[in-house]
């Protein structure tokens, strides 16, 4: 094979930024760039910001990561962990990370967890990729206006998302659980058990996951022919005290105290909200299940301990599907997967 001509070599060099280019653009030494990428704790904050801006502007990718990207085979994938969720109580993303980590060795890879930067949504992704520790990412906690998918696409970084890419319906790099179907099943279950007034306790409007689950509640009411109005709903953030207060207001509007035992119920967008509903039911001197039905979502360990009926997410299946999608051979078009949840029935939805 003949050697490349000087012109082609120059063209190749010009097309890919080097660490020297980054150093020159940031006005620092090569060693400072290396420290910024591998040991950012050694670099002063203003200098680190200048280097990372140059990395972003030049779209610099360390050689080890570039080689892995060309192979389209991840030896490690990054996963952003968010420690700021209020009242976690067995947050579903904790379980997903565990399942993702457990299944990783089967593929000869591992998970690199990193914390978010509250001032820059993509900073953690940029820094983790630049460090050479990963060559792809598994996203979670997707939401409207999420800048991460577009940033990863622009930088040609492999990724898969646990949760739909809500603002980009044409993207199919995701695996999700059908929350709408889960809430429909929850309402159908309550109707079969004889509850006829079923309210909804969800998150504030605007959460794509929460809105999807609320739509399932509305669907379920219509399918069961129940008379409960879709307006008989309350909302709260993921906080136990707020959930308890919101559930109390909802139970009052539903007339839980005045109506016959076993006729009123509440379906919830999460197990944490459902725990608030259990507290509110007991505060009224009523018994969950016997007097007021309560159903949660996520089927956490806490739900099992509290005898709470809950929609079970097939998280282990989601983790396996995420790895298959991320590690698919180059050129394989990703096919989105919407998994069906099931209902774990316990005492909180057993009247009488």
Q: What's the short story on this structure?
A:
The chain contains 14 helices and 12 strands.
What does this molecule look like?
The chain is an alpha/beta fold and 352 residues long. Among the domains are: 57 residues, 434 Repressor (Amino-terminal Domain) (Orthogonal Bundle), CATH 1.10.260; 144 residues, 3-Layer(aba) Sandwich (Rossmann fold). Helices cover 43% and strands 15% of the residues. The chain is built from 14 helices and twelve strands. Helix 8 links the parallel strand 3 and strand 4. Helix 2 crosses helix 4 and helix 6 crosses helix 14. The relative contact order is 0.12. This is LacI family transcriptional regulator. Keywords: DNA-binding, Transcription, Transcription regulation.
Strand content: 15-25%
Which blocks of ≥5 consecutive residues have pLDDT under 50?
Answer: 1-14, 64-74
Q: What would you call the shape? A: elongated
Spell out the CATH superfamily of the domain at 179-313 and 341-349. Response regulator
Report the total helices.
14
**Assigned CATH class of the domain at 179-313 and 341-349:** Alpha Beta
Radius of gyration: 25 Å
Q: Report on the biggest sheet.
A: 6 strands, parallel
Which range best describes the helical content: under 10%, 10-25%, 25-40%, 40-55%, 55-70% or over 70%? 40-55%
CATH topology of the domain at 179-313 and 341-349: Rossmann fold
Widest beta sheet: strand line-up: 2-1-3-4-5-11
The class by helix and strand makeup works out as alpha/beta
At CATH level 2, the architecture of the domain at 179-313 and 341-349 is 3-Layer(aba) Sandwich
Distance between the termini: 83 Å
What sequence of helices (H) and strands (E) makes up the elements? Answer: HHHHHEHEHEHEEHEHEHEHEHEHEE
Average predicted local confidence, pLDDT? 87
Count of β-strands: 12
């Amino acid at each position: 094979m003949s050697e490349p001509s000087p012109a082609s070599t120059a063209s190749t060099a010009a097309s890919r930024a080097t660490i020297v280019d980054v150093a020159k653009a940031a006005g620092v030494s090569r060693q400072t760039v290396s420290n910024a990428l591998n040991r950012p704790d050694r670099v002063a904050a203003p200098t680190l910001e200048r280097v990372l801006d140059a990395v972003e502007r030049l779209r610099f990718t360390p050689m080890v990561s570039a080689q892995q990207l060309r192979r389209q085979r991840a030896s490690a994938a990054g996963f952003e962990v968010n420690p700021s969720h209020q009242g976690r109580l067995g947050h579903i993303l904790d379980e997903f990370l565990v399942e993702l980590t457990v299944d990783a060795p089967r593929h000869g890879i591992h998970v690199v967890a990193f914390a978010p930067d509250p001032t820059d949504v993509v900073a953690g992704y940029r820094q983790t990729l630049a460090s050479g520790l990963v060559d792809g990412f598994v996203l979670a906690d997707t939401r409207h206006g999420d800048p991460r998918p577009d940033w990863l696409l622009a930088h040609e970084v492999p990724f898969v998302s646990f949760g739909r890419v809500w603002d980009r319906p044409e993207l199919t790099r995701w695996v999700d659980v059908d929350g709408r179907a889960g809430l429909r099943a929850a309402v159908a279950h309550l109707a079969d058990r004889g509850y006829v007034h079923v309210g909804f306790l969800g998150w504030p409007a605007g959460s794509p996951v929460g809105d999807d689950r609320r739509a399932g509640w509305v669907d379920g009411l219509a399918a069961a022919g129940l008379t409960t109005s879709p307006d008989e709903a309350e909302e709260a953030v993921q906080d136990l005290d707020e959930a308890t207060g919101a559930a109390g207001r909802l139970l009052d509007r539903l007339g839980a105290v005045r109506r016959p035992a076993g006729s009123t119920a509440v379906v919830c967008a999460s197990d944490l909200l459902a725990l608030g509903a259990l507290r509110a039911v007991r505060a009224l001197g009523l018994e969950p299940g016997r007097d007021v039905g309560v159903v949660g979502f996520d089927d956490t360990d806490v739900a099992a301990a509290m005898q709470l009926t809950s929609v079970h997410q097939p998280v282990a299946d989601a983790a396996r599907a995420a790895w298959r999608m991320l590690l698919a051979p180059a050129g394989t078009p990703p096919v989105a997967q919407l998994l069906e949840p099931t209902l774990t029935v316990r005492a909180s939805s057993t009247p009488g």
